[in-house]
Amino acid sequence: MFINQDDQHSSASRELLILYATETGTAQETADRIARECRRVHFHCRVQSMDVYPPETLISEHLVIFVVSTTGWGAEPRAMTSLWNMLLRSDLPDDLFEDTDFCVFGLGDTAYEKFCWPAKKLSRRMQSLGGYEICSRGEGDEQHRLGVDGALDPWIECLLEVLIQLYPLPHEQHNIPAGRPPPRVSFSNLGSDTFPNPDPLDEDKKFHTASVKCNRRITAEDWFQDVRHFEFSFEDDIKCYCNSDPSAAASEVNSFLATMGWTNVADKFFRLECEKFDEFVSIDGADELYDYCQRVKRATWEVLSEFRSVRIPREYVFDLFPLLRPREFSIASSIEVSSCRNASISVAIVRYRTKLKIHRKGVCTSYLSGLKSGDTLRIGLRKGFISLPTGHQWYTTLYFGCRSAHKDQHYHSEWEFHAEKRNLRYHDVKRTYMQDLMKDAQYIWTMLGSSNKMPTAVREVVRGAAEMFGGRSNAEAVEYVAAMEREERLTEECWN
């Protein structure tokens, strides 16, 4: 890519903002990775989630990188909503971002039709408002044999080359420095009389103190998966979305600290097999690295315990170990039935064995499973994706798919009770999946008047109903389903 030297920016202007929007944390990890590489070329990087960044200040930024994941059927993450709504305003001038350089990296899955859709829309909208895209949009694909890194690695390489042309390196450097990038943080030892900062969760108004009222298993005792029903009571009125802040088991933390030699400094804020490492990080060794790490789900401390001579400088701890994200769960209760200060969630306790026969458990679900009645915790609230239509009388039909009608048909007694009261139409389960239950296509059409595979199958059933019983052609049925989505009459919330 040729860049006119007259367009070069002052080398003193090396401030870079990286905004990410994520649901599961992948976009945040990608943003941190981009920031780490940009520090190689002496940029001071700010990494922020779009939902905490004030949208009105975007006009004052001179260099921005957007990292955007994809949710559902091509929807933007909720963290992006506020910024995106601002950018969609019709009264914005065409030259609003004429002084802003930007680029976009999207994350998606080509198993879905609208691959990296939010990233594509954001890129086009920024250009239409006068922004200059300094680097072609990157699109990370989960289906690539190297995962997102298959597109991210070459994109970062291209980005750095562009940045050092636009913002020349200081001190007559002409090449990207090799070796370790500068650390994200620096450490200093504090005196024993220094008081630690308060817990951020205690001061975050998005989190509320909750007391445990119930922790009950709702799958059969002999079923392989332990699914729990939790009930919480709050000191404040709540709305409709919960996430809890987990913590790792003390024994696992202590084991890792001992491995790193940090035992004596952890509470103060805290030559190896080079040939094998060089092989892992090379392009030719990418498949072997994937087999060693991802395929068998090795944890970081397990890798470090095998490469025993590795010692990580503590100033790099936040570069290598991301902070635990709050785990999100869907509400399993209604404030119209229960009190505005009560909420319930359904949680599948994560326990499994890796291909190396190592027992693994979920950090947050293990924490939740050990809660007893009367225990307290901090819980955040966030609006979910799906809401029922307003302004009409709607008759609800529930299609419930599970593996066993007798062992993991969650809340079946409640569904059957409401079905008997004719409050909803409930489809019985017979060891089948939701798209199979929905083959009652004629009724679906009357009503209308993976994880990555199931949403597609469900949409195909809806399209088939429109074609078979709505008298539409295949093309018309496809457009009908697309129109339903645009009008928010078809909404999906899908999780792996």
From TrEMBL:
Any coiled-coil regions, as ranges: none
| A molecular-function term among this protein's GO annotations | FMN binding
Q: Per the database record, which ranges form the FAD-binding FR-type domain?
A: 205-389
Enumerate the UniProt keywords alphabetically: FAD, Flavoprotein, FMN, NADP, Oxidoreductase
Q: Which domain of life is it from?
A: Eukaryota
Q: In this protein, which residues make up the domain named Flavodoxin-like?
A: 16-160
Cofactors that this protein relies on? FAD; FMN
Among Gene3D superfamilies, the record links this protein to: 3.40.50.360, NADPH-cytochrome p450 Reductase, Chain A, domain 3 (1.20.990.10), Nucleotide-binding domain of ferredoxin-NADP reductase (FNR) module (3.40.50.80), Translation factors (2.40.30.10)
Question: Per the record, GO CC terms?
Answer: cytosol
Q: Which InterPro entries match?
A: CysJ-like_FAD-binding (IPR003097), FAD-bd_FR_type (IPR017927), Flavdoxin-like (IPR001094), Flavodoxin/NO_synth (IPR008254), Flavoprotein-like_sf (IPR029039), FNR_nucleotide-bd (IPR039261), NADPH_Cyt_P450_Rdtase_alpha (IPR023173), Riboflavin_synthase-like_b-brl (IPR017938)
**Name this protein carries in UniProt:** Flavoprotein-like protein
